[in-house]
Amino acid sequence: GGEIYVAKIPSYKITDLAKALLPTATLKEVGIREGEKLHETMITEDDARTVYDYGDHYIIYPQADWWHKETDFKEGGKSVKDNFRYSSDTNTEWLDSKRIAQLLPTIKPD
After folding, report:
1. What's the N-to-C CA distance of the chain in angstroms?
2. Looking at CB atoms within 10 Å, which of 5, 35, 81, 94 has the fewest?
3. Pairs from 65-70 (Cβ < 8 Å, separation ≥ 24)
């Protein structure tokens, strides 16, 4: 139907992922590099007027003439506030290195 589904997932820091993968590693901070993002934005403020919250996910509905709300809209969603943004820096759920390690499969060296 043209809609975009966005799952609500926890955020994490790349340094926590590194610590989860190899807890004994020495990490060297090199700073942000050209073109690198600090945060990922999954839903922008511009999309907010067509975004609905369905509990464990969001749906961004099309802003096209061919899309018909009367027949294509999924019931049960609640519209989000104007200027809503779903981004890793505003996310309220975060994983630390311990929780990431619990989610990763066991890695055995060769």
Report:
1. 47
2. 35
3. 66/2, 67/1, 67/2
Strand order of the sheet with strand 51-53? 4-7, 57-60, 51-53, 78-79
Q: How far is CA 6 from CA 2, 51, 54, 63, in A?
A: 13, 10, 10, 17
Helices (H) and strands (E) in the chain, counts: 3, 8
Q: Going residue by residue through the chain, which has 110 residues, state the pLDDT in tens, using 9 for 90 and above.
A: 789 999 999 999 989 999 998 889 899 988 888 998 888 999 999 999 999 999 999 999 998 877 777 777 888 999 999 999 999 988 889 999 999 998 887 655 55
